[in-house]
Amino acid sequence: MGMQRYELEAWLGDDHGLTDDQVDEFLVQADESNTRFGSDQDEAREALTAAYRLMGEGADAVVADLYQRRAAARAAELDALAGLQQAAIVLIERGDATESGFARQAGVDRMTVRKWLGK
Prior knowledge:
The chain is mainly α. The chain is about 80% helix and about 0% strand.
């Protein structure tokens, strides 16, 4: 069973600014989001937040903000991967870590670590 209207209204709070028709539409979107993302509550919450924002803000502003967030996250991932690569090189060459142990600790597969090491 999907989200109940009272649950959605509790999530929205008192000053949500939506009409009854918008709340009805939002309830449908919330149910679709919960179905789409299943047990991943973080993704479902983000989708629900985007749906709410689209009802109250201009679509261009919402999409631009989400694009900026994604670009920042990708840049942060690239920076973190560069740091992990350097850490792998130093720690494995020093003998302070094994390839598989470092891979587990860093959340990457062993083949990625081997690639970083030039193997």
